[in-house]
Each structure stands twice: as C-alpha cells, then as structure tokens.
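To: structure desk
From: M.T.
Subject: fold request, one chain
Message: Could you run this one when you get a chance? Sequence is below, nothing fancy, just the single chain.
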Amino acid sequence: MKQGKLIIFSAPSGAGKTTIVKHLLTKFPSLSFSISATTREQRGDEVHEKDYYFISKEAFLHKVAHQEFVEFEEVYNGTFYGTLRSEIQRIWDAGKHVIFDIDVEGGIRLKRKYEADALAIFVQPPSLEVLKERLTGRGTDSPEKLQERFTKAEKELEYAEKFDVILKNYDLEVACQEAEKLVADFIAS
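Reply: Done. Structure tokens follow.
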C-alpha cells in the first residue's frame, strides 16, 4: 500500500476518544496508531515511542523549522503536539491505514490536507459537566491544569460541525460499536 487512509479521532480531553481508538485497534488489524510528538512530560505509565514521542521543546522546534510535521500546535501554553510526516509514512510503508487520537485543531488540519483519504470523527461527550467529572476523576492534573483543560474543552466543542461525523459518546459500548461501523465502511470505500 503506497498510501493508505487516515482515520482521525478528535475531541476535548476526557471525551473518550483514546478509549475508542484503543478499542478499534483491537478490531482492525489493518489499522496502526499514529504516535504524536509532544513536549509535555510523561504521565503515569505512558511509554516513549508507544504513547507519544516525548521530546524537548528545542528538538520539537527544530523539527518544525525543518518541516518534519504534517501538522503541529501549541495545544497548551508552552506545550506542543504534532504529527510527524515520518510517522504516517512508517505506517503506510507497513501496508496499514493510520488512526489518530489527536486534538481538535490538529484533526481539522489533517482532514484539510488529506481530504477524501481521511475520515474525521469528532467524539462528543454527553455534557461539559460529565467531561469535567472525567478529567477530575483521572487525578493526573493540578487544579490549574484542569481549569486550562476545561476552558479549552468549551472552545473545542464549538468545532464539532467541522468534522465529517459527530460520534456521541453517551454510552461507551454503543459509541465503540458505532465507531466500528464508521471505520469498516470508510476502509471498504
């Protein structure tokens, strides 16, 4: 496969996109996860080169200057995330389709770049209150960081209509089943 398809899952933090993407990876052997690069610190049991490429801000900006990213963004003040061109090519060279778990603005950029070869899915949480409960329940962020995430989530929810599909995650099992159908239909098209 010279160039496969791209399946983009975007949502505010806590909406369930990571859980849905992990589920899809168990159901579709033809999918491979695009590992994003980030300048943030590792959390909990995250693994370098599995969950993210954890790199310094200097290294990240060097890659930006050399146009090594398909898309990148300063998601939070001083914290960058991006998709390396080499990461997409690595997956295509393996004969697979790329699945992304990516922030909302990055998802929109990828869709614009790859158009018909990309399916952009926005995972919508039941409400902002449920989102806040999920993020607080994680116990991984300071109160200041949580507030930053809540503010960003409010803004990101306004982007839902820019995606190909809005997948409502009111019930995780139902959302996973709906995601399976969306992905199967897109890969087959």
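Reply (cont.): The chain has one domain: 6-188. Let me know if you need anything else for the meeting.
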